[in-house]
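Progress note, project year one: complex with magnesium ion.
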Amino acid sequence: MDAVIETTNLTKRYGRTTALKDCSLSVRRGEVMGFLGPNGAGKSTMINVLLGFARPTSGVATIFGENSTRRAARVHRRLAAVPSDVTLWPNLTGGETLDLFANLHGAVDSAYRDLLTHRFELDPTMKVRAYSKGNRQKVLLIGALMTRADLLILDEPTTGLDPLMEQAFRSSIAEAANRGQTVFLSSHIMSEVEALCDRVAILRSGELIEVGALHELHHLGGRHLDVRFNGIVPDLSRLPGVANFTVQANRARFEVRGALHPILDALAASDVITLDVREPSLEEVFLEHYGERS
Amino acid sequence: MKKALPHRRVSGTSLIARSCLRSGALLGAIVGGLVGTSARAYASLYPTTSARRSLALAYEHNTAMVMLFGPAHHLDTVAGFTMFKAQMTCAILAAIWGLLTSTRLLRGSEDAGRTALLLTGSTSLKRWTGTTMAMFTVAALAAWVTASAVATVFSHELSLQRIMEATTILLAPFVVFLGSGAVASQLVASRRGAASAAACTLALSYLLRAVADAGLGLHWLLWFTPLGWVEQLEQPDSGWGAPWIAIAAASVFLGTITLLLSGSRDVGAGRFTRRTTRSPRRLLMRSPLAFSLRSLGASAMLWGVIVSLASFLYGLVAKSAGATLRAGSLAHITGGLDASGSGTAVVLSLTSLMVAITLSAFGVSQLAALRSDEAMARVDLVLMFPVGRSRWLLGRLALIAVAIIGGGALAGLAMWAGAALEHSGVSVGALVAAGCDDATPALALVGLVATIYGVSPRHTVALGWGLLIWSAGLVLVTVVGSVSTTLLATSVFHHLSAAPAARVNMASAGTMAALGGLGILLSAVTFSRRDLIHH
Ligand SMILES: Nc1ncnc2c1ncn2[C@@H]1O[C@H](COP(=O)(O)OP(=O)(O)OP(=O)(O)O)[C@@H](O)[C@H]1O
Ligand SMILES: [Mg+2]
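Model obtained:
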């Protein structure tokens, strides 16, 4: 039993809107999977189905081999979650909220809880109504992390966190991954996903359009080349795989998809001063994919 | 930047004006409708002079009726009857409307962060509050014009002058409680809190006037309650001056206090700002059920205090109120309740009906709170843990049911305590039984509304309150007029026995309790088979 989360042809419709269409996804034990997609792609819907809050229209989702809808309470013993758009109880303090979460979950690592409270600089004696947005998010994050659950399902967990806290979050997820916890992380922040995730799934309009290891995805976007010539810049725009070819004085910038050798052959014939090749960032891959929409 | 601000401010003001206009017109339509239909019903129900006279004889000196519905004057005239029938309903409705409107506009927009947005301009909180309160005159005017117009359309029995008099009187509580809600909005830092505080002043106001009308020689108490001022206005022979001065003075006073308070506080804060930090209180957090109890506890206690206080007061006056009941009037009063027995017992069974309605209102409010917890995705925060869905809901609903039964028993005890102080000779057993019996229609209603919640949560609030108003309305109308039995049968309160004036009907009580239980079970089953629905 290698897969922790397994969805098979998962479809979820809300009236006429199809929020998820035939999604088959598998998250392996111990991996950190990033879950990307533009607003309204269906990320939260997927997470709601996984948590048993929404029932799939068709298809199944299993977590630890058990049906995520029908055996929700049982499945939840081994997972912890940060759902999006929830409202905490304004009259409880942060600490009381964490106490409640601890009681509802069962056992938690209280030493780790204290460490997290310190790391995220949360004042647990303050009432939730007096917290800023970021501090409320921290309560949810600490609540999920302190359980040390086998599976963490996080829906845009760093909304409202400042860059320092973002770092704290990253080190906490790295710790979780080192302990062998599985993490399913929906996010809009590419650098976060790039820094943390082993694999990435990209959702668009309810459809999973890409699932793969991070380094595989990089190849989806073109490599960026920046070349300075001594003298005239040759026209490389017709070579196979070249796109966005721009020339500025003696400098050419362009992207290349697929094999590099036709380009290198062409360059060998010219007087090249400098050559810079860069892998695309996840952000560029993402923008390229969703740029296609317009 | 500079240019954009005045524009934003203007649109904010016009938004409030529109909201005031809508709210006032809606209230006016209801009040006008009630006035118009009452006048028309009177003309058709009591067409002859002799019929009108006997009605007047039966009601005018009936303390129980006066305590519950306010004094009756000149019941042999259309205007007199209309005022009698519409006064308490309209006055309370207008008051609630007023306090909800002002807390919504003054505190609700602050809760939602809109006020802070508006105040980024040059407006101060004080000026903004002043502008909003100035718009309240739009609401009052809209209510008055609409009410008069609607009443005129509905009835030809009343002259326009009479109608305008009536609507002016009936809408006076709207103005006073707009003010009361405005002050509460300055003191309490949340809309719900402010509305509750203002509602408490209304409850107190109603109780005071009920005691004043109980025939205990405490008539002067009327001067200490806005609803009392309205009552004074209805006495055609007493001068109009003093009560109007009281109403105007109170409104101006409340408005001034509001302005002063708003000038000395921060946006989003209240006068009684609670401390923002505290050492942890871990009571009632061990399990989902315990936590449900924690959420229910405070409001259950508040409702419990209100219902037992009211029951106690009514118990206290039951004997003297019952003594004035005449044999002939019993049929009228208890037509819908099917009671016989002593006057005291009849008054107590009317009180018992009020207890049943209050317990039902508590139940509906708790289901509305449940729905709001789901809409705000608070339910998710519990259900993301290893907590069974149907078990969790079952627990929460069971707690509501237990609170209702407990509230009924408490009300029965309080009624007995009041009655016993006056040596009314009603046994504690009979009254506690009546109190528990009062819980059964509330349970049936909770079962029904819970099922609605299980199937279609978005409709819980509207249908829940709608069913309650429908049920209570039908039965209360039977106290004054007549309603067809088939229609009446749709009201849960119609199936409540008139204990202690009649024996508790075990079959009907059992059926209602069982329906309640069934509804709760059904709710738990359907809830576990649907999506959680936010917003
Ligand atoms: N309860 C609902 N009823 C109707 N439509 C819904 C509901 N929940 C989601 N949708 C629709 O399903 C689609 C997916 O929404 P979802 O919230 O899953 O997107 P998301 O990827 O989480 O977006 P975001 O990045 O903004 O959080 C949207 O088109 C949304 O309008
Ligand atoms: Mg989302």
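The first helix of chain B runs from residue 4 to 45.
The radius of gyration of chain B is 24 Å.
No further modelling is planned for this target in the current period.
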